[in-house]
Amino acid sequence: MNQSESSSSADPINPCPICLGLVKQEAYLDRCFHRFCYNCISQWATFVATQHSHSQSTLKCPICKSDNSSIIYGCDGDSFQRHYINHDLGNRFSLSEAHKYRLRCYYSESGAICKKFDVLQYWKRQRYLQPNKWLQSWLRREFQVLTQEEDVDIIVHHIHGLVESFMRRKEKERSKSTPEQNQQEFKTAVSDAARPFFTERTERFVNEIELFLASGLNIEAYDKVYLECLGLNAPDATSKGAEVHEQTQQVLYFHLFDEDSDNGD
């Protein structure tokens, strides 16, 4: 018996609203968070789809009638699966070990890793003016983790383009703003751009991208430091979906920043 079935059997007064039996393989709609058996709500979504001539991107909750865009299921404390209403149930994205580790990071306190990197020095020394060639690959993995979708190219290009545009503008302005002002402007811009995709996880994502940029490390090295802070073992770089490491396997601790090139104190 899995965890969801076990917890459901201890809660007979809250049956599945569709089959009226004990909830098996718990599933939730992403906006209203009403709970169902996964098979029940999936079959309901399939039935509703047959009543429309055009593909629907949302599903009305059979209880409260609110519009929902996905079904959340397979929650185990560290990860979950998501099925978007207008996607084929047979084509779900499978998380690699590297993806699962990053998802666990979003469920963990970030205090330990924040102490490893001096973020304010990143802004004071204008290190943000040095391009980060690993950012695009790092963003792709983060977005796959947060959306549970494989095809995240649109979001990657959107956020990556925003970051590059911000850095180019700051290179022209240089001394017009304080480091603290530049930091806050960056975080506000990324937050505004990411919020439609990540909602309540937006603030944490903004902190994570700032930490990655401030570290100056490639993806493998950053993962190693992060995992040490969490007290975890490194994910297997040969696992399916770990392509994000391919560009960084030659040097484990390659550091982007040259201390002699710092601008400022």
TrEMBL record:
Organism of derivation: Nelumbo nucifera
SUPFAM superfamilies: RING/U-box (SSF57850)
Keywords annotated in UniProt: Metal-binding, Zinc, Zinc-finger
Pfam families attached to this UniProt entry: zf-C3HC4
Record-annotated RING-type domain positions: 16-65
Superkingdom of the organism of origin: Eukaryota
Record PROSITE patterns: ZF_RING_1, ZF_RING_2
Lineage: Eukaryota, Viridiplantae, Streptophyta, Embryophyta, Tracheophyta
A molecular function GO annotation: zinc ion binding
Stated name of the protein: RING-type domain-containing protein
